[in-house]
Amino acid sequence: MDSPFRKKMARLLMAASFVAGCATLLFAFSLRSSAFSRNGASAAGDTDLLDGYRHVEVASVSDAIEQTLGKKMYMSHLMRPIFTSHFAGYALTVSLKKDEGNTDPNALNGMLAAIDHGARDSVYVMTVEDGNDIAGMGGLMGTAMSARDFAGAVIDGGVRDTAYLRKIGFPVYAMGIVPSTSVHHYRFAGSNIPVVCDGVTVDPGDIVVADSDGVVVVPRARAGEILAVAQEMDFKEHSMYAYIEKLKSIEDAVKKFGRL
Questions:
Q1: What is d(CA 205, CA 212) in angstroms, rounded to the nearest whole number?
Q2: What whole-number distance in Å separates Cα of residue 171 and Cα of residue 190?
Q3: Which domains does the chain have, with CATH numbers?
Q4: What is the pLDDT of residues 244-254, one digit of tens each?
Q5: Of 43, 81, 230, 258, whose CA is between 20 and 30 Å from 100?
Q6: CA dist., res. 84 & res. 95, Å (int)
Q7: What gap in Å lies between CA 241 and CA 95, rounded to an integer?
Q8: pLDDT bracket for residue 41 (50, 70, 90)
Q9: Beta bridge partners of 92
Q10: Taking Cα atoms as reference points, which of 94, 91, 95, 154 lies closest to residue 119?
């Protein structure tokens, strides 16, 4: 039979083990909470940035880029929406190159994988070499993007299945609407690489903003600065409308607000 001393020591050891276990769990939880806080703060910052771009006019973003960077980052009048929309998201780039008559069943697998691995709020930016009359995407790809909460798509090429894309409300900008396919005509040439989309260089992670006026690409490293300038421009312009209506003079409004 165990002595009272041994029983007491056993109880003390069990208590010490329990305390140590709790301390370990608390330490692990604190590390996890700390990591969650850091990631959450970053995610919150990204969310605030995109939300800002979703509530500013693309024309103001374009002007802000010219004022801040001294260059143009907007796509041409040929890049048109299949329906009126306004979105902002992070560029997920994909490139297709011509490969006429290929019978490789895996030739386009990479563009599908890019969608399936794309994050929420992505904008699918695809360049289709000499592809104005080739549909770079259609209803199936649009459905997958919509299911993964992509913000939209910008295709330097054609788009098809537009009735279905309108039905599900997935916004697409493209160079034209055509019924053709890229199968057997093109090959996947890379994703998350720098591309030139309708004359504008797009790097992976750049912010792509689109509305009824067109599409603008915002370099990610300067996105916060450019947003602040665009918001100021928006505020001035929106303030000018009532002023112009009241005084019936655009000259006076421009003098007062310094914005045209």
A1: 23
A2: 23
A3: 74-218 (3.50.30.40)
A4: 887 777 777 77
A5: 81
A6: 26
A7: 43
A8: very low
A9: 124
A10: 91
Distance CA 225, CA 230 (A): 9
* Degrees to nearest 5, angle at CA 101 with 98 and 103: 105
User: Using DSSP, how many helices (H) and how many strands (E) does the chain show?
Assistant: 7, 11
Contact 52, 231 (CB under 8 A): yes
Residues in the chain: 260
Query: What DSSP state is assigned to residue 78?
Result: T
Tokens of 111: 């563009």
CA geometry: angle 123, 215, 170, nearest 5 deg? 45
**Type of residue at 33:** S
Q: What is the number of other CB atoms lying within 10 angstroms of the CB of residue 22? A: 10
Is 152:87 a contact under the CB 8 Å cutoff? yes
Question: Which DSSP category does 118 fall into?
Answer: P
Element (H, E) at 218: strand 214-218
- For the entire predicted model, the pTM comes to 0.80
150 conformational bin, left if phi > 0, alpha if psi -120 to 50, beta if neither? beta
